[in-house]
Amino acid sequence: MPDRTWVPPGPFDLHRTLGVLQRGPGDPAFAVRGGELWRASRTPQGPGTLRVAARPADGRVEAEAWGPGAAWLLEQLPELLGERDDPERLTARHRIVHEARRRHPGVRLARTGLVLESLIPSVLEQKVTSDEAYRAWRLLLQRHGEPAPGPWERMRVMPEPRGWALIPSWEWHRAGVDAKRSGAILRAVRAARRMEEAARMDLAEATRRLMAIPGIGPWTAAETLQRTLGAPDAITVGDLHLPKIIGYALTGRRGTTDEEMLDLLAPYEGQRHRAARLILLSGRVPPRRAPRFPVGDIARL
Q: How far is residue 187 from each of residues 45, 143, 204, 269, 273, measured CA to CA in Å?
């Protein structure tokens, strides 16, 4: 059970920095307990569980880890917590961005250094509601993952690539995952080594590497690399809600398209994902006019 201490280079919000790694309530690979964050990962050295706790009294972050991947997780801890991230590179061009940064000065972009860990749940989130995707991730890890090392018995580590490849078609169906999404995941895990190499590339090269897999487009690549690389410019294009939120927050108008969103964020070139993240933290969203999109369940078909 090795441990490590890290001192942030500036203001630091542990929960908002690492919270983006959680895939919904009940995520078997992520948990919050008593203010501490727990994360179960499949590292290059094997499964590991990381516990991270902020100590505001002296400005430190403490971590300990279990399992074959423990040393790797602790070595990567500063990058995970955003040590390589530089929030000051963003210059606020809108009042709402300025205010969001003032209210949330400790938000950094996490860099996991792991591709499949973010790619697979991002594929599950394609073209479905968040609740459907979270349910699929939860069921697949509970049935096909392995118990996470360490003291928290309910946590699970996602399957290794071969484990994903061996999941039978009816198990994908039972989890509510259609053939298009499961097919994209299976193609990605068969090229697992090539996928993981993207963690050591720049954003443009990593995006091309991921999108070489049929079924992985710009939306999925951006959602993955925001977490894998902590990429400040990996703006999500093709999202149902994001352009409308960005457009409403910056202009007060409804119905913003992807192209219009990119125009609005052009002053933040190089930091567009960070700008969008701050806008989302502002809480300024267009009032709902239509009922929530109904949740489907292909497992019942």
A: 23, 21, 21, 32, 27
Count CB atoms within 10 A of the CB of residue 55. 11
> CATH 1.10.340.30 occupies which residues in the chain?
115-229
Mean pLDDT of 100-104: 96
Q: What is the mean pLDDT of residues 259-263?
A: 98
Every domain range in the chain assigned CATH 3.30.310.20:
3-85
Q: What sign has the CA pseudo-torsion 87, 88, 93, 99?
A: positive
At the top level of CATH, which class does the domain 3-85 belong to?
Answer: alpha beta
Question: Looking up tokens 């917590």, which residue turns up?
Answer: 81
Determine the 3-state secondary structure of 188 from DSSP: helix
For 35, 201, 217, the CA distances from 210, given in Å and listed in that order, are 35, 11, 8
CATH architecture for residues 115-229: Orthogonal Bundle (1.10)
| pLDDT tens per residue, range 211-240 | 999 999 999 999 999 999 999 999 999 999
Instruction: State pLDDT tens for residues 76-93.
Output: 999 999 999 999 999 999
Integer Cα distance of 260 and 240 in angstroms: 14
